[in-house]
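Before relying on records like the one below, remember that each one covers exactly one chain. Contacts with other chains, cofactors or solvent are not represented anywhere in the record.
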Amino acid sequence: MQTTTMIEMRNITKIFRTEELETHALRGIDLEIEAGEYVSISGPSGCGKSSLLAILGLLDSPTEGSYVIDGRDASNLGVNARAVLRNEKIGFVFQAFNLIDELNVFDNVALPLRYRTPTPSAKDIERKVMSVLTDVDMAHRHKHKPNQLSGGQQQRIAIARGLVGNPSILLVDEPTGNLDSKNGDMVMDLLAQLNAQGTTICMVTHDPRYGDMAGRQLHLLDGQMLEAVAFAGAV
């Protein structure tokens, strides 16, 4: 069966420099993620997870190395070009939800579409937003404000916002960090369902129980990739 490489990183290095100090956050990272994969990245605090996620999400550029996402070379793009490509190719789900309290659920989910050029029509936005809200079983809450929802419901809205632009890959950063175990399990079950339907997911998590739900588990230590474990039977 032929697969499509969604993410390809080669020799990714990230160095933070000050006048007194040089910090090597990432050291020669090689990473490939295929379309439809579910990958988790774990490691102790300070291992480089945040730096790797920032580069994966086009929020930062590597000091050295190459990064290709869905066939597009993103290695040396400027800030504006990264923003355009990020909006086209990447969906985000954050630990802190990052919903805007003043906007209702519908408008929170619609935000990525309204930043696109050209902006989709109002009818197209409504169709796409209600479709992803239905996927996460939150269409009935589309007029509510975030502060009227539970933490688990807010994370479902955040997942819908990450999916609304039909991204090539969904980057998920500690999705259960602000949730109790019941809501955390519900969110993880939803991610598993989305992956089963074909969504490519790369998740950063400190929780080994949730990391084990991925089809492939990667480990970082001191800015280096240690090993990748494939789980038999994982989606």
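Confidence is low (pLDDT under 50) at residues 231-235.
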